[in-house]
Design the sequence.
């Protein structure tokens, strides 16, 4: 299973020099909870819903004046597309994060994997196995 089949591809990218307000508008329009932050095409961070709450709302910063580079999470953790989905979930749980950026080299984002993507995969997998067991048992 390639994680890119589960992730948001291509990832939503926003420049580090853009404001929080611009990033939030883009994320809301795309209906995603995290954006990859880039500088000159190179991945430099991630900005998530949690970052908005903890780093913008709580300190009462102006989203239309605050650059992403000041509040993004960096350095960003990346995972390879070949990582097993259970390992990605384990990593998310260990690091208390809901988003992982998929990258083959740590410089270019290929996709953003959310906990929602992983949970949907797990639910589909369990439902499929349940149907197979019910069919086997003749129910």
Sequence:
């Amino acid at each position: 299973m390639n994680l890119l089949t589960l992730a948001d591809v291509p990832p939503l990218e926003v420049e580090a020099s853009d404001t929080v307000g611009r990033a939030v508008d883009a994320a809301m329009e795309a209906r995603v909870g995290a954006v990859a932050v880039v500088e000159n095409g190179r991945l430099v961070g991630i900005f998530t819903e949690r970052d908005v709450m903890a780093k913008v709302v709580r300190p009462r910063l102006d989203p239309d004046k605050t650059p992403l580079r000041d509040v993004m999470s960096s350095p960003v953790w990346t995972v390879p597309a070949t990582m097993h989905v259970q390992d990605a979930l384990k990593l998310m749980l260990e690091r208390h994060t809901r988003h992982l950026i998929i990258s083959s080299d740590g410089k270019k984002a290929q996709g953003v994997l959310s906990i929602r993507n992983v949970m949907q995969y797990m639910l589909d997998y369990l439902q499929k196995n349940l149907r197979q067991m019910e069919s086997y048992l003749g129910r």
